[in-house]
Write a structure and sequence with these properties.
Zn(2+) binds at residues 260, 263, 361, 420. The protein is an alpha/beta fold. 48% of the residues lie in helices and 16% in strands. The chain contains 17 helices and 14 strands. The protein starts with a strand and ends with a helix.
Length: 433
C-alpha cells in the first residue's frame, strides 16, 4: 500500500488521482448500442435472446416474470431457516423508511400582491430498479432503491435482476422485494434490462426513471438512454477515505479500508492521518487480515489504488478530502464532530470509530446509493427527492398583469422574440381599454 509522506509527493498524487469511474470503453459502448437497438426493434424477443446468451440458456418467455409463488416460497424459506435475516430486513426497512420520511417535500403556494405562485410536488408514476444478481445476493440494494420511491408515493416499482443458471433469482433478494412491496420482478439483467425498462416491451413496462447499481454494461446503457428515461447516476468504482489521528484504532481502520477494497479491483481506499505510527500499524493489520482471509479482489485493490497520506494536521486532511470528494468519508479521530462542517464534498460522512461505512450500507437508515468518481461536488445521495417532479404554478390577476407585463415585454423585445411580446401586448391593450 502506497505511503505518501512529503508535500511534493502529495501534490503529484493529487494531480494524478483519477475519480473518473470506469472511463470510456468504446468497444463496450458499441456492444451496448447494438443491444439497445435490438431491444428497441424486437422487444421481448431480443430480451429473451440476450438473457439466454448471458445468463441462462434454458430461459423461456414464461420464465421472465417472477411468479408470486416464487416470491412467497423464497420468503418462507428464509423465515423458516434464517429468521435473523428476516428480522434484519425488517429493522433495516424501518430505519431506512423513517430516515427518508424526513425528506418528503410538500406542495406550496404563496401570494405575492395580486398573484399566486407556487410549486406542486408529484411522484413519478413508475420506476425501475436494477438489482445485480446471477450468483450474488443484494437485498440491501432492493431496500435502498425502493424505499425512497415508496415514501415519495411512486405507484409502481418494477425490479429487474439477472437469473442464475437454473432460472432462479436469489432468495434473499426476493425476500427483500416482498418486504418492500415490489410490484413486478423480471429475470433480466445487463444492458438489455436497462433498454427494456427505458423503451418498454410487450412484457416489461416502460418506466420514468431507472435506479440501481450494475456492471459497466449497465452503467453505459443508463448513460446512453438518459433523456429517454431519467436515471440516478453513472456509478463508478466504490471509494472510501478515512481521516484519522493517533487516537484511531488501526485494526478498525484497516478493516474499513478492506471493506471497500473487496467491492472491486478498481475500488479506491485512502487513509489520511497525522500519525506515522498509525499508518504503519494499519498496513500491518491489512496484511494480517488478508493473510487470514485471502481475497484477490481486495488485495489487488489495495495494491493498485490504496494510499496512506501522512499530513501535519486535521485541517489539512479536510482540505484534501474536499479535493478528492469521496463517496464515503470516515472521521476516526479524537473529536470527529469538529470536522463535520468543514467537509464540503462527500457522499456520506461516518463520524467516530463505531460508525463504520458498512453500518450505513445496511442498517442505519441513510441511503447507501452515493455519488462516486468525484461527483460529490455536485450530486447527492439517492433520496425521496429523486422520485418526485416539481410543477410550477403561476396565477396572475388582471391588476398584477398590468403591472408586470410591460417589463416582460421589454425583455422579450431585447431577445427579439416578438410574438412573446405580442402575447403580452394583446392582453395589455384590452386591460388598458
Amino acid at each position: 500500500m502506497r505511503i505518501i509522506e512529503n508535500k511534493k509527493e502529495l501534490e503529484r498524487y493529487l494531480e494524478t488521482i483519477s475519480f473518473i469511474g470506469y472511463g470510456v470503453v468504446e468497444e463496450i459502448e458499441k456492444k451496448v448500442k447494438k443491444i439497445i437497438a435490438d431491444v428497441s426493434s424486437r422487444k421481448d424477443e431480443a430480451v429473451l435472446e440476450y438473457t439466454r446468451l448471458f445468463d441462462c440458456k434454458e430461459m423461456e418467455p414464461v420464465d421472465l416474470l417472477v411468479k408470486e409463488d416464487e416470491i412467497e416460497e423464497a420468503y418462507f424459506e428464509c423465515q423458516e431457516e434464517e429468521p435473523k435475516f428476516i428480522e434484519a430486513l425488517k429493522i433495516a426497512y424501518e430505519n431506512i423508511y423513517q430516515y427518508h420520511l424526513k425528506q418528503k417535500e410538500e406542495t406550496w403556494l404563496y401570494t405575492k400582491e395580486d398573484s399566486v405562485l407556487g410549486q406542486i410536488i408529484r411522484p413519478l408514476e413508475r420506476v425501475g430498479i436494477y438489482v445485480p444478481g446471477g450468483n450474488g445476493s443484494y437485498p440491501s440494494t432492493v431496500l435502498m432503491n425502493s424505499i425512497p420511491a415508496k415514501v415519495a408515493g411512486v405507484k409502481e416499482i418494477i425490479m429487474v435482476t439477472p437469473p442464475d443458471k437454473e432460472k432462479k433469482v436469489n432468495k434473499y433478494t426476493l425476500a427483500a422485494a416482498k418486504i418492500c412491496g415490489i410490484n413486478k420482478i423480471f429475470k433480466v439483467g445487463g444492458a438489455q434490462a436497462i433498454a427494456a425498462l427505458a423503451i418498454g416491451t410487450e412484457l416489461i413496462p416502460k418506466v420514468d426513471k431507472i435506479v440501481g447499481p450494475g456492471n459497466i454494461y449497465v452503467a453505459i446503457a443508463k448513460k446512453l438512454l438518459f433523456g429517454v428515461v431519467d436515471i440516478d447516476s453513472i456509478a463508478g468504482p466504490s471509494e472510501v477515505l478515512i481521516i484519522a489521528d493517533s487516537s484511531a484504532n488501526p485494526k478498525y481502520v484497516a478493516a474499513d479500508l478492506l471493506s471497500q477494497a473487496e467491492h472491486d479491483t478498481m475500488a479506491r481506499c485512502i487513509l489520511i492521518t497525522t500519525s506515522k505510527e498509525l499508518a504503519f500499524e494499519v498496513v500491518e493489520n491489512i496484511n494480517g487480515m488478508l493473510k487470514a482471509n485471502p481475497n484477490p479482489i481486495a488485495s489487488q485493490s489495495i495494491e493498485k489504488n490504496g494510499a496512506i497520506v501522512i499530513i501535519e494536521d486535521l485541517e489539512e486532511a479536510t482540505q484534501i478530502a474536499n479535493m478528492i470528494c469521496p463517496e464515503h468519508l470516515e472521521l476516526c479521530c479524537k473529536e470527529p464532530e469538529d470536522l463535520i462542517f468543514k467537509i464540503k464534498n462527500a457522499g456520506a460522512i461516518f463520524v467516530g470509530e463505531f460508525s463504520p461505512e458498512p453500518i450505513g450500507d445496511y442498517i442505519a437508515g441513510p441511503n447507501h446509493v452515493l455519488p462516486t468518481s468525484g461527483t460529490a461536488r455536485f450530486f447527492s445521495p439517492l433520496g425521496v427527492y429523486d422520485f418526485v417532479k416539481r410543477i410550477s404554478v403561476i396565477k396572475y390577476s388582471k391588476e398584477q398583469f398590468f403591472k408586470d407585463a410591460p417589463f416582460a415585454i421589454e425583455m422579450a423585445e431585447k431577445e427579439r422574440f416578438l410574438f412573446h411580446a405580442n402575447s403580452l401586448k394583446v392582453r395589455l391593450e384590452d386591460v388598458q381599454k
